[in-house]
Amino acid sequence: MTLEIHVLGTSSARPAQGRSVSGSIVETPDGMVVVDCGEGFQNRLVTHRSAMKSLGGRRLKMSKVAAILLTHGHLDHTWGVLPWLQTLALDGRTDDLWVIGPTTPEVVDTLLGSEESPEVSALRLGYPI
Question: How many other β-carbons are positioned within 10 Å of the β-carbon of residue 117?
Fold first, then answer.
């Protein structure tokens, strides 16, 4: 089994010296997992995908992302989740997407019930009970 890790940010709460806040993608033969999704995740992902293509590599397909793993609830690890979910919804994603992290079903229900973001509430998110 081959795993490929794409590191998109390793800084702490404050971007510093060309390093962005936390965010990585773990690519497996069966799909991908986003590990943390800090501020600016989408922009870093677009830049990374373009760089891979310009170097003759393949692009990461966001349709292959099966889960987002949040290591903990600090904003430098989570601030980019909702904007990215909105983009996935605008792109027409209908596949289940697991968001795994230290939370409760009530937190997820609150996020999905937001009237300010109907695109996000249209996504089908799963969480273990």
Answer: 17
Going residue by residue through the chain, which has 129 residues, state the pLDDT in tens, using 9 for 90 and above. Answer: 688 888 888 777 766 777 777 888 999 888 899 999 888 888 888 888 888 877 777 778 888 899 999 888 788 888 888 888 888 888 898 888 888 887 666 656 655 565 555 555 445 555 444
Q: Is 95 a catalytic residue?
A: no
4-126 placed in CATH 3.30.930.10: no
Q: Which residue has the tokens 């968001």?
A: 99
Domain boundaries, the chain: 4-126
Annotated active-site residue in 30, 36, 76, 96: 76
User: What is the C-alpha separation between 86 and 123, in angstroms, rounded?
Assistant: 9
